[in-house]
Amino acid sequence: MTAGESNIITFPAPSYFGDCPRCGRNDGYLNDGAEHWFICRRHRVKWYLGSNLFSAWRALSDAEAWAQAAELATYTAIAARYRGTLPAGVKDSEP
Ligand SMILES: [Zn+2]
């Protein structure tokens, strides 16, 4: 790693599910109930992907589900930047 590089891992690269418009990365997603939000922790932003698309939210304990929803509540909802093929029904947020 050279000076100025970030240690944030791009997931996946390039992201099918959108990236932070400021840094072009994401930190995966968190769930608020059945809703999935991708996040960038560095810039404290989130963007909505959809509801009940991934089944993992059902396996969360009450404490885990609460913690994820609480973390999401601290982030600002934004429009993600999309590269490559877009998921069905998702519009490119770039002008
Ligand atoms: Zn970012």
Describe this structure in words.
Strand 1 and strand 2 form a beta hairpin. The chain is an alpha+beta fold. It is globular, with a radius of gyration of 14 Å. It contains one helix and four strands; from the N terminus they run βββαβ. The protein has a domain at 29-77. The N and C termini lie far apart (33 Å). The protein has one helix at residues 62-72, and strands spanning 29-32, 35-40, 45-51, 76-77. The model has no long low-confidence stretch (mean pLDDT 82). Strands 1-2-3-4 form a four-stranded mixed beta sheet, with helices on one face. Zinc ion (ZN) is lined by residues 20, 22-23, 25, 40, 42-43.
Give a short overview.
This protein has 95 residues and is an alpha+beta fold. It contains 1 helix and 4 strands; from the N terminus they run E-E-E-H-E.
**Percent helix among the residues?**
10-25%
Task: Label the overall shape.
Answer: globular
| Terminal residue distance | 33 Å
Report the bound ligands by name, code or SMILES: zinc ion
Average pLDDT for all residues = 82
SS-derived structural category: alpha+beta
Annotation field: number of helices: 1
H/E element string?
A: EEEHE
Sheet with the most strands: spatial strand order:
1-2-3-4
Major beta-sheet overview:
4 strands, mixed
Radius of gyration based on Cα positions: 14 Å
Fraction of residues in β-strands: 15-25%
